[in-house]
Task: inverse folding
């Protein structure tokens, strides 16, 4: 695409003016984001960060925002509910559906950006757009310009939420765009598990452009599960920004099955001393899908620890991209960081680009990284066949086992079981 | 329990300490008797950790005045390892990793050194193995711990548990736990707190240095001291911690400044 | 404990710095075709070897000294070096007992007895003093199983076909500046040949000693392991203390055929210069092994503690399918020492595997760099490499650097890299002290733990020597 087309794409996604909402601060934020979105060019493969991910198929269509669905597929949506959750926010085609949502009485404040969140007034104003800025990122700018009913989850000081919170984003209309937004604020000493679930019910080509921000307070702990199962014709571009205060812990599993082209930028800043961050990822793609995960873990303070395991299973002529950046800043002494990228190619046409990126400026650190790219080990397949399994069964079992290492780490039982089923279905070779 | 008639275990008088030429502790007085649990709290930079490290003899923390006695013995006349052998244990906020040295051999060397200093028999590797496994059971720690390198690649919670295990083995007279509760999920915090509680005995004492009030839901201190600006500005009982929980530190700091002025 | 006290703990006087007073025959300084012809004539070499040398020399003249290593030193004047020095033999050696008593005392002092009955059980030794091999022990016993172990000068005469076939086959004369120089002027070195299917019954060992102040040492070692054979080879090196620098530019070539295994261990303790960086050896060495056969294996283990400057990358070319290359290294630098060392693992064949474990310890004002290349060629399906590079800093005035180069041209490969940099400083020692453990024991425990993975690769006697070398037997030097 031409330079000028790249420049105008973000603008083409937006209306000329935004209707004013009830909150002056939000109107100001959105207006500023709109201005940035109009000024920024969308990325092309000439940008180092997008070298392997060509978005020109997306740029062919300026998807307009979906309207509130005329028919609500209630039953299909209810089947997606995670029974353990006592708080749930449901979004269909980007629109908040209060009557399907539930805010349980478990000490957590759950609401949307535009409404004052019960028990946590001012939380959205205080935190939104802090961890994912609009200055350089045209997609985040467009998302912020549309910001209205984004999900807000706030856990007060020293409160240990015993049940997970589910945030469900369902797409039902093809040829449309939606702009999911999530803000999670966990105060000092508190604990939270939450699920971000992106699902397609009707298929077709559409565009999901999401932003998630997670602020983890001093000595607080967050477990985050992100599942992306959009349609295989759709586009899914999302940024997740996380900040960790002193002694904070953050553990995430990011599971990616869907989209024709997906990109997740997952950026964690260790802003306080003694923090712990775990990023696990699984991308399972086939056909002509492309799944791109860019992560960045920024160790800005001493005694931080991070662990990352990212796995890709690539079938058909699909393409997976992983770029894992680890920064250890001067002064971030005794940082202990380990990153591993494991990739399984199921066909000769499947393709992976994996790139660790280490920038270490401190002198008392441990950093490990490893990358493997390969097909199923013929010795393993042979071993299983020698025990009576058919070749297809042996391959399916080994592929499943490769994925299960990540899925098994999901702390919510019902979701884990569902994903295990889904992985099983996706990894069955056509016999 | 408060033990006003009990034997004085640790006595600190007028302790001043500086780090890189900057005075951090500006006159600390503290008396800890056998059987007591003390909590030292305070905002960031108040000098809590400095007190712990000065008592244990970290070379970067220069004692510039005052005295400290453990069982009547002048602590500052002793090298750090002699203080440890005399029965002072410091639980570290960030324990050091030692790749290639197994936890088992490190623990045995530490145990035998401290035992030897107390004139007690050292244990050979087999005897020590039995002894340490008992302690592991008591603290609900996986025996696989022993074969791993000291703190190498341990999670935050595992490191803290390893500190508690060392405390259990060395059976100190006085344990000073420096932010042992930081960075722990509630379940790990319970394990650590249970470990501390199970080691509490009438002839020992514990000083908890903590940044977060949450720990005190699991361990009940007899005294709560609040530090600010390198001094203990208030001493109370558990109710003081609860008050801090609801009111924060600012009201105390205000009155502290008023007193100082 | 201060850094000075910590430094005292690891400082040990150099124990091998004495000079042997022995009459030597040394050629005048300077390098020309005439010098090379003279060396060749003295060694009574065949014409092909003289040609080999002259080709190398002519190529060397066109080459420039490498500038990429992370080391600095004044320009070397190659005309100010004597290229041949040999202890004058009193008469022809008929047996071990004929070795000059002064020489024998020298090696006894170094812990290398030349009497077979006193030799460490089961180790055959070739002894190189300055430019020539003095003696080789256990020759007869080895010959019984067909193993050839002798100086390379002897091999040129006694086994010319083998030498001619393999010399320069792994490290070509034009490979690099110092390899070319070595090929032109090498004077002696060891030759080992392990015939098909033979498991060499004892460790083979060469002991190198530089004695003369102005001579360079250019030894050449060639080891060939035939199909299904196995050999473990050790080398040790020391030199006297001089205020000037001596150049040591060796070439070692290893060839492993189908299913053969060569294990090559080095404890390098050349004189490192004094604490102000005066004197010491420039150790510029090319070592390379060719895993030519299928399922062959070459394993390098090195403990580098000496030399003013070390520039050395023992490498493996993994040509045969299923072949294996290993590199285990401990490099200790102190005072003003500089080391730029590492390895190259070149994966050519399918299913080839390599493993790199490098441990660098820097103290004083020294500089220690790991430089390594892992290359996976386009045909090396399912190749695997694991690299681990750990650095330990003692004090604040030293430097540690890691330069890992990874080139992967096959997308079915597995490449893993781990790196750490740690310190022995007051926080580490305080942690031990707080558990009742004093600083000497703490340093010893930390360093022992740090190097353990490499030391377990060394043959027993060498491991003991290496442990002593690292100053682990610390004797009451804590301030």
Result:
């Amino acid at each position: 695409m031409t330079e000028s087309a790249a420049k105008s794409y973000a603008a083409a996604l937006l209306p000329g003016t935004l209707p004013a909402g009830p909150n002056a601060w939000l109107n100001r934020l959105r207006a500023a984001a709109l201005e940035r979105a109009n000024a920024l060019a969308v990325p092309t493969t000439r940008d180092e960060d997008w070298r392997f991910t060509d978005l020109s198929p997306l740029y062919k269509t300026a998807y307009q925002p979906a309207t509130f669905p005329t028919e609500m597929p209630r039953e299909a949506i209810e089947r997606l509910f995670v029974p353990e959750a006592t708080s749930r926010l449901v979004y269909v085609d980007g629109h908040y559906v209060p009557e399907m949502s539930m805010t349980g009485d478990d000490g957590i404040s759950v609401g949307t950006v535009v409404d004052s969140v019960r028990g946590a007034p001012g939380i959205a104003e205080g935190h939104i757009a802090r961890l994912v800025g609009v200055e350089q990122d045209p997609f985040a700018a467009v998302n912020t310009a549309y910001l209205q009913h984004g999900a807000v989850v706030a856990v007060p000081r020293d409160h240990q939420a015993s049940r997970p919170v589910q945030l469900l984003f369902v797409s039902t209309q093809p040829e449309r765009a939606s702009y999911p937004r999530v803000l999670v604020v966990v105060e000092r000493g508190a604990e939270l598990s939450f699920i971000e679930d992106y699902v397609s019910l009707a298929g077709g080509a559409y565009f999901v452009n999401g932003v998630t921000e997670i602020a983890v307070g001093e000595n607080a702990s967050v477990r985050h599960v992100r599942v992306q199962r959009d349609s295989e014709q759709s586009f899914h571009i999302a940024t997740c920004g996380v900040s960790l205060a002193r002694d904070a812990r953050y553990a995430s599993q990011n599971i990616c099955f869907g989209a024709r082209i997906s990109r997740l930028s997952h950026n964690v800043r260790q802003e306080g001393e003694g923090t712990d961050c775990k990023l696990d990822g699984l991308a399972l793609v086939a056909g002509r899908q492309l799944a791109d995960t860019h992560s960045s873990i920024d160790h800005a303070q001493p005694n931080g620890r991070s662990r990352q395991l990212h796995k890709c299973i690539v079938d058909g002529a699909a393409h997976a991209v992983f770029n894992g950046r680890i920064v250890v800043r001067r002064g971030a002494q005794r940082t202990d960081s380990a990153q591993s990228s494991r990739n399984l190619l199921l066909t000769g046409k499947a393709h992976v680009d994996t790139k660790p990126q280490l920038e270490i400026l401190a002198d008392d650190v441990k950093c490990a990284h490893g990358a493997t790219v390969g097909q199923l080990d013929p010795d393993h397949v042979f071993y299983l066949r020698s025990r009576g399994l058919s070749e297809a069964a042996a391959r399916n079992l080994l592929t499943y086992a490769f994925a299960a290492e990540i899925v098994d780490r999901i702390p919510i039982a019902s979701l884990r079981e569902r994903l295990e089923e889904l992985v099983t279905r996706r990894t069955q070779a056509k016999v | 329990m408060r033990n006003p008639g009990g034997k004085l275990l640790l006595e600190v008088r007028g302790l001043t300490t500086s780090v890189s030429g900057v005075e951090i502790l500006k006159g600390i007085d503290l008396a800890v008797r056998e059987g007591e649990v003390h909590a030292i709290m305070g905002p960031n930079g108040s000098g809590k950790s400095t007190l712990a490290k000065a008592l244990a003899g970290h070379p970067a923390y220069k004692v510039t005045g005052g005295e400290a006695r453990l069982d009547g013995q002048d602590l500052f006349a002793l090298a750090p390892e002699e203080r440890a052998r005399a029965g002072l244990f410091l639980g570290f906020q960030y324990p050091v990793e030692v790749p290639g040295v197994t936890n088992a051999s490190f623990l045995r060397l530490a145990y035998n050194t401290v035992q030897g200093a107390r004139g007690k028999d050292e244990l050979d590797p087999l005897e020590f193995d039995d002894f340490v496994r008992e302690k592991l059971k008591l603290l609900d720690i996986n025996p696989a711990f022993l074969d791993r390198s000291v703190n190498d690649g341990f999670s935050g919670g595992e490191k803290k548990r390893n500190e508690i295990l060392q405390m259990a083995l060395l059976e100190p007279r006085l344990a000073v736990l420096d932010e042992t509760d930081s960075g722990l999920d509630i379940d790990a915090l319970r394990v650590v707190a249970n470990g501390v509680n199970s080691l509490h005995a009438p002839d020992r004492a514990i000083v908890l240095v903590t940044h977060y009030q949450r720990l005190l839901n699991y361990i009940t201190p007899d005294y709560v001291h609040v530090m600010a600006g390198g001094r203990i500005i208030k001493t109370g009982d558990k109710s003081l911690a609860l008050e801090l929980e609801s009111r924060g530190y600012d009201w105390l700091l205000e009155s502290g400044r008023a007193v100082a002025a | 404990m201060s850094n000075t006290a910590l430094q005292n703990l690891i400082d040990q006087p150099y124990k091998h710095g004495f000079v042997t007073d022995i009459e030597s025959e040394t050629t005048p300084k300077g390098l020309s075709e005439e010098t090379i012809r003279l060396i060749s004539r003295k060694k009574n070499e065949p014409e092909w070897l003289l040609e080999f040398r002259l080709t190398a020399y002519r190529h060397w003249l066109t080459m420039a000294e490498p500038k990429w290593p992370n080391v600095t030193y004044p320009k070397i004047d190659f005309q100010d070096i004597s290229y041949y020095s040999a202890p004058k033999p009193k008469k022809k050696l008929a047996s071990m007992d004929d070795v000059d008593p002064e020489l024998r005392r020298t090696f006894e002092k170094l812990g290398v007895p030349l009497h077979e009955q006193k030799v460490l059980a089961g180790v055959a030794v070739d002894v190189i003093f300055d430019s020539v091999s003095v003696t080789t022990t256990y020759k007869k016993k080895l010959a019984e199983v067909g193993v050839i172990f002798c100086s390379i000068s002897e091999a040129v005469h006694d086994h010319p076909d083998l030498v001619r076939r393999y010399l320069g086959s792994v490290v070509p004369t034009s490979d690099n500046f110092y390899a070319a120089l070595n090929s032109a002027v090498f004077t002696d070195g060891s030759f080992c040949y392990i015939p098909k299917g033979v498991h060499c019954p004892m460790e083979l060992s060469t002991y190198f000693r530089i004695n003369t102040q102005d001579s360079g040492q250019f030894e050449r070692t060639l080891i060939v392991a035939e199909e299904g054979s196995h050999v473990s080879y050790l080398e040790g090196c020391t030199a006297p203390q001089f205020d000037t620098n001596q150049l040591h530019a060796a070439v070692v070539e290893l060839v492993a055929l189908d299913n053969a295994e060569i294990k090559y261990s080095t404890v390098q303790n050349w004189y490192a210069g004094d604490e102000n960086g005066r004197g010491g050896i420039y150790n510029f060495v090319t070592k390379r092994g060719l895993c030519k056969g299928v399922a062959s294996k070459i394993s390098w283990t090195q403990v580098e503690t000496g030399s003013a400057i070390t520039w050395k990358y023992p490498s493996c070319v993994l040509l045969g399918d299923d072949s294996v290359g290993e590199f285990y290294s401990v490099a200790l630098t102190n005072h003003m020492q500089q080391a730029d060392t590492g390895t190259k693992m070149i994966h050519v064949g399918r299913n080839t595997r390599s493993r790199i474990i490098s441990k660098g310890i820097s103290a004083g004002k020294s500089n220690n760099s790991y430089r390594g290349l892992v290359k996976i060629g386009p045909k090396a399906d399912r190749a695997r490499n694991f690299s681990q590079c750990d650095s330990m800093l003692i004090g604040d005035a030293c430097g540690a650097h890691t330069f890992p180069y990874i080139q992967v041209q096959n997308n079915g490969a597995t490449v893993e890299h781990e790196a750490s940099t740690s310190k022995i400083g007051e926080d580490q020692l305080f942690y031990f002290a707080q558990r009742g453990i004093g600083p000497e024991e703490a340093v010893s425990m930390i360093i022992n733990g740090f190097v353990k993975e490499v030391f377990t690769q060394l043959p027993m006697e060498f491991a003991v020597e290496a442990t002593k070398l690292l100053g682990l037997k610390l004797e009451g030097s804590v301030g």
Notes: Confidence is low (pLDDT under 50) at residues 117-121, 472-479 of chain C. Chain C has one domain: 3-468.
